[in-house]
Amino acid sequence: KRARPDVVHVQSYHTLVAPLAMLRALLLRVPYVVTFHGGGHSSEARNRARGAQRRLLRPLLRRAARLVAVARFEIEQYGEELDLPPERFALIPNGTDLSFSAAGREPRQGPPVVATLGRLERYKGHHLVIAALPALLEREPEARLLVVGTGPYLP
């Protein structure tokens, strides 16, 4: 006997799995939730296909029980691009409890280091960290910025 889920949680919408999962949930009359995770990887072909992809997914996304964004900019971006009202979104930021990692360790010596990690694309917001660097250097002249990642912004 097949199990019937109480809810289907769709992670992102950038692959063929997402619309298939949403359609299956509709057929089973099971509510589904879609969590957005950024804009997906960029390539010339993907960027050209995004408009059609969004037009095809819009009706399925409108039928979701809830849409989840991991950042405020996603609510604005996807709301506009997919014509979805902001009140349809729940904001649940990614995060973790890091208290365990510092337990029993001596504080790091040397200048403060600010790190930004992720795919090097505008929507990830690395430019905001870079723009804040002069203000940080006024307060902490020895501070360093570490940018880790790969993508279209890589020189």
From TrEMBL:
One Pfam family named in its UniProt record: Glyco_transf_4
Classification via Gene3D superfamilies: Glycogen Phosphorylase B
Residue ranges occupied by any Glycosyltransferase subfamily 4-like N-terminal domain in the UniProt entry: 1-99
Stretches assigned to the Glycosyl transferase family domain: 108-153
Molecular function GO labels: glycosyltransferase activity
Matching InterPro entries: Glyco_trans_1, Glyco_trans_4-like_N, Glycosyltransferase_grp1
Record-given protein name: CAZy families GT4 protein
Species for this entry: uncultured Rhizobium sp
Lineage, opening ranks: Bacteria, Pseudomonadati, Pseudomonadota, Alphaproteobacteria, Hyphomicrobiales
